[in-house]
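Practice problem 4.
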């Protein structure tokens, strides 16, 4: 028994290094000015896929992402950890997409990939924190969804059993396949790079990357087809350009403000129970907690 798994991943700006040039005038993120990383919860999602592959050898994992040419880096990161293939959606027409336009493009790419049993993604991306893309993709594909997953406990040809971590406890649900699952950051941490896979895929490139870098060892890519990362445009996935990018994004940024946190008065407490009790009462009284 094997499965075809698609992992939705995103290259995001490192929010620990946000500077004054983080936003453009049109309200979109200036990704070129920020360090880029693999979205943390998407790594948790990848680990869930790899866990299924460990249990069922022969399972195929495809990492799907949308972004500029440099987003191919997270496809390689997926391959280094055990994924089998990577697909990059990249086109100027995709630029500036909100969650609606993003989920439309991803859903069209999933349809082009074709046969799949389960789609796994992180709950949300750290640059938007909306938690909307995964559920919207499921809706556009017309398949069930399970959100806030902490573990995919079991899976067979017909259904999956998923543990959900909710605000007030844990819930275990079953859903028929095909299925989309979004994964919390509380799920198992993704395994590190595998040295064998690192050596195998270190030269994996998209067509655009090979053209930009003017690589002269073309024979390498004809003799080792697994090094060719798939790159699709709007036309390649038969998407409607009007529903992509800014034109397909009803969400608009009205205003951007820089918020600076400043330390004011502080209290130093000892381990005295009375002081701790007084602090709790004060926090409840001013509605900080409770």
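Answer key:
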């Amino acid at each position: 028994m094997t499965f075809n798994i698609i992992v939705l991943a995103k290259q995001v700006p490192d929010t620990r290094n946000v500077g004054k040039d983080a936003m453009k005038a049109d309200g979109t993120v200036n990704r070129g000015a920020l360090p880029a990383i693999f979205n943390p919860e998407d790594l948790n999602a990848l680990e869930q896929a790899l866990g299924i592959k460990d249990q069922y050898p022969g399972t195929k994992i495809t990492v799907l992402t949308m972004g500029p040419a440099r987003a191919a880096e997270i496809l390689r990161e997926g391959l280094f950890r055990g994924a089998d293939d990577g697909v990059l959606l990249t086109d100027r027409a995709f630029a500036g997409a909100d969650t609606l336009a993003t989920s439309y493009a991803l859903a069209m790419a999933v349809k082009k990939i074709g046969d799949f049993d389960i789609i796994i993604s992180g709950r949300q991306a750290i640059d938007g924190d909306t938690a909307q893309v995964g559920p919207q993709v499921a809706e556009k594909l017309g398949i069930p969804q399970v959100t806030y997953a902490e573990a995919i406990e079991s899976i067979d040809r017909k259904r999956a059993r998923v543990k959900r971590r909710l605000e007030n406890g844990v819930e275990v649900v079953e859903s028929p396949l095909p299925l989309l699952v979004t994964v919390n950051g509380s799920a198992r941490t993704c395994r590190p790079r595998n040295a064998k896979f690192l050596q195998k895929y270190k030269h994996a490139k998209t067509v655009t990357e090979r053209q930009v870098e003017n690589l002269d060892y073309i024979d390498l890519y004809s003799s080792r087809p697994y090094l060719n990362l798939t790159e699709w445009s709007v036309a390649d996935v038969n998407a409607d350009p009007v529903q992509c990018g800014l034109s397909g994004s009803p969400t608009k940024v009205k205003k951007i403000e820089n918020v600076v946190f400043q330390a004011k008065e502080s209290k130093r407490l000892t381990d005295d129970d009375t002081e701790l009790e007084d602090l709790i009462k004060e926090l409840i009284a001013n509605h900080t907690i409770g």
